[in-house]
Amino acid sequence: MRRSEIPSLDDLRAFETIARLGSIRAAAEELALTHGAVSRRAANLAAALKMGLLEPEGRGVRLTSEGAHLAQAATRALGTISDALQEIRQHNAPTPILLSCERSLAMRWLIPRLSGFQDRFPETEVHLSTGGGAVDFGRARVTLAIRRLDFPLHPGWHVQSLMPELMGPVHAAGALAGLRDGDYIALGSRTRPEAWDAWLHDHPEAPRPRSIRMLDHHFLMIEAALAGLGVAMAPFVLVRDEVARNRLTAPLGFDPDGTEYGLIAPGGRVEPSSVLALRDWLVQQAAFELKTSALPRELL
Q: What span, in angstroms and rounded, lies between the C-alpha atoms of 180 and 109?
């Protein structure tokens, strides 16, 4: 048979659906057509081929031997077309970017700013995951990761510096919090338990707290400081917005602790334009933080 003699694809599809589902009614529901339209298409196919494909059986229909043979071939052919179309759509569809970020940094810095990226690049889909330390890019399917670079880095990673870590004590605005005479509670994070000791060692002139209380994460520690429960030893990047809004006060400013945040990606991979755009945007955001990190110190 020449290809020009192949019958209507719509008729073939209707017939294949009847054969696969076993009834004209079920085929009509799947194809969103009336019972009569599906029945006519199957009849048109049989007339075009000049052979019987279906025959009555009770209140339904059953396949003839010729119909069964054609149904098998039609199912294979339509399945091949469906698979090809799915592969084409997946290939052409933009791949979401999975950005991994440390939990407190994601909550207090990245998420409040991410709408700016989405406004500029609405066609780019960014998914967030939280995590710390080393990244298994293959297993986790992470595209990019933002990390504080305080752990061994894989030699195959591409690491781009974002911003240094700046630390300083903060407390609820409007309260001296006992900083004049050391009568205050220091709040720390169990994810960085040495932060207060390190800062006090580097600032021997600073008043000492009467006690240090540890919370599980930086974001909990900052919320405790906002509630007036003590003085938090906080990374600047996590409290910048609260200081700018005068909700938190940083009386002694912020100083580098010798670490930095970096943007990590697997090496040897060609990054699509969407990933490059997100990378550039993150670098720009970090550069802006550096410009605003020199906050004026308040007098004790």
A: 30
pLDDT value of residue 296: 44
What CATH topology corresponds to 3-92? Arc Repressor Mutant, subunit A (1.10.10)
Assess whether pLDDT exceeds 60 at residue 298.
no
- pTM summary value: 0.66
- Start-end of CATH 1.10.10.10 domains in the chain: 3-92
Residue with more model confidence, 4 or 291: 291
pLDDT at 27: 87
**237 contacts: CB under 8 Å, gap ≥ 6:** 105, 108, 109, 163, 165, 166, 261, 289
The architecture CATH gives domain 97-291:
3-Layer(aba) Sandwich (3.40)
Cα torsion 129, 134, 139, 144: sign = positive
